Amino acid sequence: MKRIQNAGLLAGLLLVVALIGLHAPRARSDEGSPAAVKPPSAGAAEHQHHDMGSMGEASKALPDRGEYKTIVGEVMDPACFLEAGEKSIGPGHYQCAVDCARSGQTLAVYDRVQDRIYFVAGELPNQNPNAPLLPYIHKKVDVTGRVFHRSDAWGIVIVKVVPHQGTAQPAAVRAK
Amino acid sequence: MRITKTGLAGALLLASIIGALALAAGHAVAAPPATGTKTIVGEVVDPACWIINGAHGETHKECAIACAKAGQTLAILEKKTNRLYILASEKPGEDPNKGVLDFVAQNVAVTGKVYTRNGAWGIQVTSIQPAGRDAK
What we know:
The complex is a heterodimer of chains A (176) and B (136).
Chain A (H helix, E strand, L loop, with lengths): L1 H22 L43 E10 L1 H7 L9 H9 L5 E4 L4 E6 L18 E11 L2 E11 L13
Parallel strand pairs in A: 3-5
Antiparallel strand pairs in A: 1-2, 1-4, 2-3, 4-5
Chain B lengths: L4 H22 L9 E10 L1 H7 L7 H9 L5 E4 L5 E4 L19 E11 L2 E11 L6
């Protein structure tokens, strides 16, 4: 009888441990860490227009400075990409992407390795967020900046864009 | 305290079953995303401001309008799901913000074609109208 009690006690203990594990917060598996790099020290990547004073209803939250990193991906029009997929990054779609970008569609960077779309975020309210990417539409680039994630969407405040090694050299881009 | 082999085996079996159930719950197959034409209710936001620091609402309206006028595509932050729908124009050369800019920071009901890919969502707006502040 005592043996049964001991076994029951142990089973109960394991049950409690398992239930605690069941309710423990899960680690986020989608926090990829492509090529994390050291942020600039002089505040070059500061997103000045998103300071605490202009955060509206989120002003009570602590500022999230994002993760400073370099992502490798193709510059594309997210509107067409969401509708048509990877074929919208093909050469036959180039002019469509240019026209969309010029008419107000913010470009994005598609990271094939992580299968992730990074929406581009402007650094200042009156700056066109597409400016650093326009010379690279449908080209593979290394984009360095601050990466943010909210509501299942990814965004990057661009600090620097360079052509990915091995791709054709596009026209020089003006650094923001 | 003596623990018999039978008791220990039973306890381990029980723990394994619970662990397997926990694992199954974590990897439950998600329902396929609902695409096609639908109506969503949410706030018109500047996705850059929202993704970066969660900024939205009336007090952030002017900044969002300035961003949109500079070339930032707006988005709908769905109230029910907290999901961000990036606006998409139907044809190249069309401004995706057209007709939506007047509703920045407002709660609206938007109807249009919804697309999703790689975890991101977009909507081609066909109609937009104000919704009640608490509408979902």
